């Protein structure tokens, strides 16, 4: 069965033949023909071929868009390809129909896993950017704690607060410094996260870096304006913590 047969079936109202054509074309999807198939499906309002071709393009996103087939459709069927692009950006029904609570749960999980595409889909479907996990941390807290740079970057671009606090009054920067994720720390301070924010025990991100021996993180924080003389609730500076934990490199940096 060919695209021409699908067009003819649609024109003459041959629903059984149209359905058979859709099914056959869906099994023949490739990176090269996906754009043309999706455009065909959109033009002829195909109820099964449209979602199948859109799903295929989503699974092979940049590979499909780099093909000659995509470029050809952009020139010859611009409006239809714009509609395909709109469908690509639209969250699938199974995501849109989730409860608010389930969207929030999945957003937290996706942030922990660094699944940027899943985060993008959930936010597009209405997930709350400020949803909290069991520690009262946001999705940004979770992504920062696990060191997922791309997820952190996307969440910040979407408006996630850099200064939200979890149950221990830690910001995402505190958690990234605690875990030693230098790239995330660098990204957060570049986005104007406060390098001198204090948690519930009075620790700044620099206290965490000093205590756990994260030399590169400490260097980034100092460059961003961290105050090395700040004392926690027990009167300890980051240097005191570095000495107490025998973090000799940190002792050198902080003195």
Q: Secondary-structure blueprint of this entry?
A:
Blueprint lengths: L2 H9 L3 H13 L6 H10 L5 H11 L1 H5 L2 H9 L1 H12 L3 H4 L3 H14 L2 H9 L14 H8 L2 H9 L14 H8 L2 H9 L14 H8 L2 H9 L14 H7 L3 H7 L1
Helix pairs in contact: 1-2, 3-4, 3-6, 3-7, 6-7, 9-10, 9-11, 11-12, 11-13, 13-14, 13-15, 14-16, 15-16, 15-17, 17-18
What does this structure look like?
The chain has 255 residues and is mostly helical. The protein folds into three domains: 3-90, Serine Threonine Protein Phosphatase 5, Tetratricopeptide repeat, CATH 1.25.40.420; 95-194, Ankyrin repeat-containing domain (Serine Threonine Protein Phosphatase 5, Tetratricopeptide repeat, Alpha Horseshoe); 198-255, Serine Threonine Protein Phosphatase 5, Tetratricopeptide repeat (Alpha Horseshoe). The protein has helices at residues 3-11, 15-27, 34-43, 49-59, 61-65, 68-76, 78-89, 93-96, 100-113, 116-124, 139-146, 149-157, 172-179, 182-190, 205-212, 215-223, 238-244, 248-254. Helix 14 (182-190) packs parallel to helix 16 (215-223). The protein starts with a helix and ends with a helix. The mean pLDDT is 92.
Quickly count the helices.
18
The succession of helices and strands, N to C, reads HHHHHHHHHHHHHHHHHH
Quote the distance from N terminus to C terminus: 76 Å
Radius of gyration over C-alpha positions, nearest whole angstrom? 25 Å
Structural class: mainly alpha
Shape: elongated
Could you say what the CATH architecture of the largest domain is?
Answer: Alpha Horseshoe
The top level CATH class name of the largest domain? Mainly Alpha
Strand content: under 5%
